[in-house]
């Protein structure tokens, strides 16, 4: 898998077109709009790739730990986030390098879970449960179509994350991707703001 990503990022700093493609820009906007709070204290974003979503998360978070196992991807992410002091980059391989000693009130797993076999996704889910604060929010956004490097179906990834028992807040499904948001606090945004 490392050679796949190294080859991908060796030829371009943004191989998925996250800056230019409307599909990617729209998906990112949907993810950010689905967060149930305006601000977060500490976010963990493993599989940050070129760092485009990291920039959006940094605008909403006091601190973002963005990680990837590809050194090539991290170089691209560093260029994209160099002017953002609230962003810290790290080289992590999942699930073994999950920062188990840290706590987060937001964890974003965007386009990362399906690269792992189900047993490792289950470990990932357990790490989410163990490191999310009492007001923690978990986001998963994943491509649905088959592709050669897929190790786990998106439906199975989301089912394993759902099994940790957080309250489901958002389910957005299209032909191309599925976005889910869970939280320890199951109230809707309207309930949180006292509208109902």
Automatic annotation (TrEMBL):
<dbReference type="InterPro" id="IPR029063">
    <property type="entry name" value="SAM-dependent_MTases_sf"/>
</dbReference>
<dbReference type="GO" id="GO:0032259">
    <property type="term" value="P:methylation"/>
</dbReference>
<protein>
    <submittedName>
        <fullName>Methyltransferase</fullName>
    </submittedName>
</protein>
<keyword id="KW-0808">Transferase</keyword>
<dbReference type="GO" id="GO:0008168">
    <property type="term" value="F:methyltransferase activity"/>
</dbReference>
<keyword id="KW-0489">Methyltransferase</keyword>
<dbReference type="Pfam" id="PF13649">
    <property type="entry name" value="Methyltransf_25"/>
</dbReference>
<dbReference type="InterPro" id="IPR041698">
    <property type="entry name" value="Methyltransf_25"/>
</dbReference>
<feature type="domain" description="Methyltransferase">
    <location>
        <begin position="46"/>
        <end position="136"/>
    </location>
</feature>
